Amino acid sequence: MESLEINSDEQMQKLGKAIGETSQGHDLLLLSGDLGAGKTTLTKGIARVLGIRRPVKSPTFTIVREYREGKMPLFHMDMYRLEDGDLSSIDMPAYLAEDGLVVIEWPQFIIDDLPKDYLELSIKRLDDSWDSTKRIVEFKPVGERNMTWLLEIKNILNNKNG
User: Which of 38-47, 75-84, 126-135 tops mean pLDDT?
Assistant: First the structure.
């Protein structure tokens, strides 16, 4: 597993931009991490590079937020409220079939119902202070497309940081 240290909200959004720039229709991005880890901040970076102008908010209470006005649709999902794993209120196959990017926060609650082809980012705090922005992001690509996707993301980050 590969990892990246993030030291600010701006860097988290830059990672999101690199993910958005390299994403393709039907990509599945899973975001794991505690409350306040930066999952929605990362998604804001993705949305910005896709040309989505509406504010990106955590979909905790709505479960799914659809952003269709960008270069491709972005479906931002939060499965935290689905601790029982009941996906009956969501047509997940329909979202996955659309030519857009599906981003799922708290995927562990529904992991058995997802395709076995995804890029998972696990975001962890590096210290305990609530206002700290220091994070470690671990990447877990599953499937050939996602290994390629991760290489593309790393190339963008390395070229912009170098």
Answer: 38-47
Buried b (16+ CB within 10 A) or exposed e, 111-137: beebeeebbbbbbebeeeeeeebebeb
Any residues with CB less than 8 A from the CB of 37 and at least 6 apart, and which? Answer: 123, 124, 125, 135
What pTM was computed for the model?
A: 0.92
The pLDDT, as a whole number, for residue 85 is: 63
Amino acid at 69: E
Closest C-alpha to 60, from 49, 71, 76: 76
Cα 34 to the center of its chain, rounded Å: 14
CA dist 151 → 19, 115, 125 (Å): 11, 21, 24
Please state the rounded mean pLDDT for residues 106-130.
89
Nearest CA-CA partner of 24 in 72, 92, 65, 67: 72
Helix (H, G, I), strand (E, B) or coil at 52: coil
Residue for token pair 């700290």: 132
| Residue labelled with tokens 């926060």 | 105
